[in-house]
Description:
The complex is a heterodimer of chains A (302) and B (299). Helix content of chain A is 67%, strand content 0%. With 302 residues, chain A is an all-alpha fold. Among the domains of chain A are: 20-62, no CATH class; 77-223 and 284-298, MetI-like fold (Orthogonal Bundle). Chain A is globular, with a radius of gyration of 25 Å. Chain B has one domain (63-296): MetI-like (MetI-like fold, Orthogonal Bundle). In chain B, 72% of the residues lie in helices and 0% in strands. Chain B is built from 15 helices and no strands. Chain B has helices at residues 2-6, 8-26, 44-47, 54-61, 64-95, 99-114, 117-128, 134-141, 156-181, 185-193, 198-223, 230-236, 244-247, 250-260, 264-292. The radius of gyration of chain B is 24 Å and the shape is globular. Chain B starts with a helix and ends in a 7-residue tail after the last helix. At the A-B interface, helix 1, helix 2, helix 4, helix 5 and helix 6 of A face helix 1, helix 2, helix 6, helix 7 and helix 8 of B.
Amino acid sequence: MMAPRLSNTRSPSKLSTWIIHGIFIVVCIACLYPFLVIIGTSFQNETDILLSGYSILPKQFDLTAYQVILHNPGVLLNAYVVTIFTTLVGTVAGLWITTSFAFTISRKDYAYRKQLSFFVFFTMLFQGGLVPSYILMVSWLDLKNNLLALILPFLITGWHVLLMRGFLQTLPDALFESAKIDGATEFTIFTRIVLPLSKPALATLGLFLVLQYWNDWWLTLLYIDHEDKMKLQYLLIRVLRNMEFLNSAEAIQYGLVKPGQQVPSLSARMAMCILAAGPMLVIFPFFQRYFVQGLTVGSVKG
Amino acid sequence: MRTFKKNFSLTLLALPGIALLFIFDYVPLYGLLLPFKDYKYDLGIWNSPWVGFDNFQFLFKGDVIQRVLRNTLLYNLTFIALGTMISVTFALMLREISKRFVKVYQTVLFIPYFISWVVAGFAFRALLDMEYGVLNKGLEMFGIGPVMWYNEPKYWPFILIIGAVWKGLGYGAVIYYAALMGVDSEYYEAARIDGAGKLRQAISISIPIIKPIIIMMVILQIGKIFYSDFGLFYNVTLNSSSLYSTTDVIDTFVYRSLVDMGDIGMAGAAGFFQSTVGFTLVILTNYIVRKINRENSLF
């Protein structure tokens, strides 16, 4: 049997291609549907929800939920500020710390390369767990209710270091040697040569870090009690858990809603979710390329 | 000393990283002494009295530990088996369609991966909410229901498995798909000329080629078999205590023991078990893989 054209490997039976597309379309709907329900519900009229439940298409387009939340946006804004601040600082510092460490252990002429590589690899295999970390943060470092508690723990992780090292190892050694002959210090080599050459890798790692900091609620859950230092995602947990949270005394006390105001809590809850998670959901698909790049670099055995 | 001097500037560059790893990953290892102590805040770890294995006895005598161990293991085994199978299948399917569609599907499959478990909790609640959720409203039309999703433990093995697969599919499929893209297309052409169908090609070419990556991913997951994605079990279930019989895992148990009950001894004992057994498992799995085929081992 002769193939009509060798390079054309993709001429399978039509039926199987259709089945594959069918499966993907079903799964794609499963991925999108719940979010569409959240969006739809946030624009729904409260009485309509009470009658017919959450749905994608609002019976009548209603902005009350958003108006109520944005009328008194103090807490939401504050959570935004905390989230943006920790994300920015964490990402920039994390990039520097991870990359500089990875650069050092990627250098073949570095004497402690083996030891330091093991030093980071071991942290991936063996961890102390939640309780020792908690005691470290709370009683030894005294970081309870400190913004640093929302930043420090994620700055450097073994996985990120290996990812970065994998990339930096592809840079030719001759580059550093010639720079050294010209009298450049390691610091200059790192800032002037390595960082500019690593832009794609930095973009990938930066995205990992942004996502990690932005989506974090765990550190707030553990280390923050003060309302003014809570992150967005944590605020969302409260709204999610407690259906009537937006009508509770607590929400009034936080200044999330004004006393005496009846909040359309069903739609407002979804509106909160959109306001808190929406921006990322819109932005991230555009950066997906870097993300996929990073994932695939990381999966190569290093 | 000369080597130290010669390497000093590079060491200095790595110093912030070294310090952070030391503080946040190595110092806590000292806390592994905790379960052998009757910890008192004012005395610190070292000065608190030793209690030997009391905390472990207490932990393993309780009935909660059986439940959480069973749940953790069963969920993780299912996630590893099902997650790997589905991810590989989807990667193989992506290979069969044109690049244009791959991009679209990939983007959509990635959405659940980009969101936090909190937002995923909202997504699930939109469907499962007992009064207003889409599912119950749908069932109502058929005269069924309402199903008390958040009160009935029996549904949760399915819900949690769906949740984990749903959130991890984009990531898993992309990892395997990328590996498949590296395969020389000549293999497939040769197979086609020999009359091998698509299925045959997948089984005889694609799967053997991505086998090392599958093995690596599985070893990594086996090492974490006593750990769970806390967000899944905490946020998607709304931490509803009536569901604990099927949703409580070691991590949620440790968290509750530590934060809600303040039982550091018990939480520490469970954490100690998690760390040491997890570590042993990675070493062991890697050793076995290495015995069978050195190339496939992780280290």
